[in-house]
Amino acid sequence: MTIRELKIGDQASTAKTISESDVYLFAGITGDHNPAHVNEVYASQTRFGRRIAHGILSAGLISAVLAMKLPGPGAIYLGQELKFVRPVYFGDTITATCTVSELLPEKNIARLETVCTNQDGAVVIKGTATVMPPSAA
Length: 137
Prior knowledge:
Mean pLDDT: 97
Helix content: 10-25%
Distance between the termini: 11 Å
Shape: elongated
Low-confidence stretches: none
CATH architecture of the domain at 11-18 and 54-132: Roll
Strand content: 25-35%
CATH class of the domain at 11-18 and 54-132: Alpha Beta
């Protein structure tokens, strides 16, 4: 969607269940092998009591919404402010929802509120994304 097609309040979502394989693949790709993510014995002694997924792995679902749904293919992701509110555990189903909150047509910029919730509806991540929607063809 171009800046002219977007409206305040437009919303899109995507969901994914975070698996152990997702966490290990993400650790391998990024080099982030924090034992809170990959070592069950270590993680069992943390305040979470078990392994947790990388926060930025779940935040990556926001990127999927922006790139594929709203504004969609051709959008350029310019920035993101995030707050990690709750942990994401292996097996949690995370839904990322993006809602258009501000439009700056003169700059071809859109701001979207971004929220990730788990299967219980609890917010795990919240923030704001800044994107450049695709230009009209």
